[in-house]
Amino acid sequence: MALPHPERCITMIVSIEKLPEKALALLSGQQVANGKYSDEDLAKATVLMCWPSQISEGLLRKTPNLSAIQTLSAGVDDIPYSLVPSKVRLFSNANAYSVSVAEHAWSLVLALAKGIGRRDKSDSRILFEKTLLILGCGGIGSEAARMGRGFGMKIIGLSRSFLKPEHFDEKYTDLGELDRLLGVADVLICTLPVNKFTTTMLDYDKLKITKPHCIIVNVSRAEIFDENGILKLLKERPETRFGTDVFWRKNGKEVFESKLWDLPNFLATKHTGGVGASRQVRDDAIIFAAKNVLMYLNEGKASNEIRHSDYA
Predict the structure, then answer these.
(1) Per the structure, how many domains does the chain have?
(2) Percentage helix, strand, coil for the chain under 3-state DSSP, each rounded to 5
């Protein structure tokens, strides 16, 4: 008789964030400290559900039996990797915000293309049958590609992996292709995770390869772009248009002030594409995370496992 997977003997899940009822129902049968927990709960916890910014040395010191951390966010660059023991498996909430963020990306693309919200008149760009380049083809990138089909666009993806490859006309995994692909894109949507490989990947030298009339949109992390580089490009090339839902962090905090706001070819929202979109988006994402925890408990594995080495 096969023995049950040892990680199925879960005794305690500690969620620092209070779970919505549907998420709590998914985890019924388990012990769950839901938003309120004691040091005793932490001592017994084998799974921790939280936002990356809630992970601290003090918290980890109180969880000697921890085997897994499930983040509630898709982005995981704020996890203090040096503090997390290597035996603790990390799972992101990638794909939980895919539709919301992809829709937001397209709202920026369309507003930039059509000059929406601008006081002065600008040329309205036609997107039909143009070339769309998506950097990062996981959940958000795949949804953005699917939506791009409605505009009859040629869709190119550059990514380490493809969640839904069927949505792309061309797929590339070699970062060495980046320069060539930047040069053919009419629209660029960036959904890459930020890590030690992608930070400031799109600096001025890369950005100037893009077509003069390129529409560039970022819905991942601001740090993938060099702020001074995109500022310089937009000043030199007023026909290039840039939109973002994310801003650069200073002292660990996202700061929405930028010289970019002074430029007519810039458009932004203040990080409202994902968890900040609405209560429904937030609750649905937490339910998504709970399903992943349930998979981990039942099968000893789950989706979106993070490689410590990509960030440490």
Answers:
(1) 2
(2) 35, 20, 45
Same domain, 115 and 91: no
How far is the C-alpha of 11 from the C-alpha of 173, rounded, in Å?
41
User: Which domain, by its residues, includes 37?
Assistant: 6-95+278-311
Cα separation, 121 vs 137, in Å, equals 34
- Three-state DSSP at 268 gives strand
Give the CATH number, domain containing residue 300: 3.40.50.720
Residues 6+ apart with CB under 8 A from 225: 190, 200, 202, 203, 207, 218, 244
Residue that wins the pLDDT comparison between 236 and 75: 236
Predicted confidence band of residue 4 (pLDDT cuts 50, 70, 90): very low
Q: Do residues 245 and 239 make contact, with C-beta atoms less than 8 angstroms apart?
A: no
69 plus 137 within the same structural domain: no
- Rounded mean pLDDT, 136-165: 96
Backbone φ/ψ region at 281: left (φ over 0), alpha (ψ -120 to 50), beta: alpha
Query: Would you tell me how many other CB atoms lie within 10 Å of the CB of residue 86?
Result: 8
Q: Residue 20 is encoded by which pair of tokens?
A: 């919505």
210 with 244, same domain?
A: yes
Quick one: which H or E segment has residue 119? none
Task: Read off the pTM.
Answer: 0.89
Residues 6+ apart with CB under 8 A from 205: 229
Pairing relation of β-strands 47-50 and 187-190? unpaired
Task: Say yes or no to pLDDT of 98 above 70.
Answer: yes
